[in-house]
Amino acid sequence: MRRPDDGDGGAARRREQVLFELAKRNKADVAETFHAITEATAVALDVERTSIWRLLPDGNAIVCDDNFVRAQGRHTAGETLWARDYPSYFSAIAENRVIAAHEARTDGRTRELRKAYLEVHGITSMMDVPIWHTGRPYGVLCHEHVGPTRRWTSDDETFAANLADLASLALEAGERRKAERRWDAVVNTIQEAVFVLDGEGTIVQTNPLAARMIERAGGGITLAERMELVEFRDEQGRVISADRTGGRRSLSGEIVRGEINHLVFKRTGERRSYRITSAPMRDGDRIHSVVVVLADVTEEVAFDRLKREVLAALAHEFKTPVAIVKGYAQHMSTLPDASPAERPMVAAIERASKRLQKLIDDLVEVSGISLGRLVLYREPVELSAMLCSVARWAAPMATHHRLVVNAPEAVAVSADRPRLEQAVRRLVDNAIRYSPLGGDVEIAVAPSDNDVVISVRDRGIGIPADQQNRIFELFFRAHAGTPHDVGGLGIGLFMAREIAVRHGGAMWFESEEGRGSTFYMRLPRAEVP
Amino acid sequence: MKSAGGILVVDDDPDLREFLRLMLTSMGFEVTSAANGQEALDDMEGHDPDLILLDMKMPVMNGWEFCRALEGRDSRPPIVVLTAAPDPAGRAAEVHAEGWLGKPFEYADLEGIVRRFASPAR
């Protein structure tokens, strides 16, 4: 083996050169970089064996990531040294400082290794430098000299420490690459098309599903091309102009959450429905790009439409037979010549037909509103008058009740009048039906600066505590199968809350079993022009 | 000149026609009935009723076609649309009807709307 025979200056230059070469290489492949480091340090420091060891998280062992033996010119890995066998050596490692053992076989820190390790490999001098990773000790870069003992110089230590820093950088780069690969795997396998648009609305990045969509459209990288090849329609079927697409709106800072867009691919005439989500990506105040995610909901939209049509058709077909049954029953109950045995039968037919009618009304409503399809036609609505009208509507049903409307002043909201009235009717209808012994039903309106709260209070049977968290669920009926069961599909409160929420408001309640319930509906106040 | 009076019930459901005939007769009205728009037009050759109670969805000639057929006339009797549609008022507006009654209806509602347009014969 030839020792470098040129002066210190030449050796220093060569070491600088080695560092430079290692620093500029791509370090994302950790194993490859470790190989390069052990080979480089073996040559530059003229050492027979160089290795990188990883300290296990519990500190009980070090495992060899890479060991380069210069004479054989090959790399090995996997050897393990246990702390219980070499406690002094491990305490030295734990100090995270350079271990420069010139006389390794007698040095207090390394002499434990003599029999099992140093003599086996012919090692006389050792130098370990700590490798750090994300602020924690990762392990050591180890130099093992074979032959006459050797004094490690401070230049040797500095050079080794620099290489250990490069090892840290490799670990970080490897970590980053792993994270990127994980992320790529997610983006490439999800069932949504992901697009990244630049500040001009041009597509600059896609996942495979998004790329297939572009293929289906026949191109459309820039916004102008896209508008040429694809027609965008909103949930109600209105054409969306180039400046109102989800991506465009997000370029102006808006976050678009889950809106339904219908796309017509003009090249083939194919129509598909997507749920679109888009959000701006900012660099300080500046929006530099936008991420757009499209989920194909064509089947869901078609099924939803079919469901509504079936429900509506069913309800329609039920109405005429119910009209006949109900009409005759009502008529027969007024005839004076019915026998005492017939009267309760006729009364039962009449009650049954009323329940049927209620079911049909529920079906009609749920088919019209079902899941995301409620379109509001807003106008200024004066609430005091509306609540009085609801009370008049409810009066024939409230045989045992006193209906009280507490609306001290005229207060207006911007609302879809029939829908809002429908929601309040539902609350009042419930209040009456679930207070069979009567009592006050109080309908009140309480305006504040920004909101109006409508409340409907009864002194009825209340809602059992264990049912309260489900009360707004579609088709949930708290009193189903109890003596208080008054029929229905269980859609009233679902509908009422849905209507409140679509108006930008909310609905909640207070209830105590046996003492009654109060339902609240908060609505934003109409803006005065 | 045609003889005036009575209520013409136009509905394809024979049971509903019979029920309406019974109810309206008991209120004191003269009642004629037809199973579709064409039958109603034929019936009106003889005389114009005071009021037409008109179902919309019928075979042969539906309510929309029937109303269009009447549009050419100088005058026509008032029409009350009898419908199971979720928006009965909208249906009535579509054919410029004078009133509407949603199915299923209450006896009182039937009596109320009929008396707005016609008077009992006796």
Number of strands of chain A: 20
CATH architecture of chain B: 3-Layer(aba) Sandwich
What structural class results from the helix and strand content of chain B?
alpha/beta
Which whole number gives the mean pLDDT of chain A?
88
Provide an overview of this structure.
The complex is a heterodimer of chains A (529) and B (122). Chain A has helices spanning 8-24, 30-44, 87-94, 114-121, 154-189, 208-217, 223-229, 246-251, 298-334, 342-369, 383-394, 417-433, 492-502; strands spanning 49-55, 61-69, 74-76, 80-82, 99-101, 123-133, 136-146, 192-198, 203-206, 230-233, 256-265, 270-283, 286-296, 379-382, 401-406, 412-415, 439-447, 451-457, 506-512, 516-524. With 529 residues, chain A is α+β, with helices and mostly antiparallel strands. Chain A folds into four domains: 8-181, Beta-Lactamase (2-Layer Sandwich); 190-296, Beta-Lactamase, CATH 3.30.450; 303-369; 379-524, Heat Shock Protein 90 (2-Layer Sandwich), CATH 3.30.565. In chain A, strands 1, 2, 3, 4, 5, 6 and 7 form a seven-stranded antiparallel beta sheet that branches. In chain A, a hairpin with a 5-residue loop joins strand 1 (49-55) and strand 2 (61-69). In chain A, helix 1 runs parallel beside helix 5 and helix 11 packs across helix 12 (417-433). The radius of gyration of chain A is 39 Å and the shape is elongated. The termini of chain A are far apart. The relative contact order of chain A is 0.05. Residues 1-6 of chain A have low confidence and may be disordered. Chain B is of the alpha/beta class and 122 residues long. Chain B has helices at 14-26, 37-46, 63-71, 88-94, 107-117, and strands spanning 7-10, 31-34, 51-55, 79-83, 99-102. The model of chain B has no long low-confidence stretch (mean pLDDT 86). Classes of the chains: A alpha+beta (529), B alpha/beta (122).
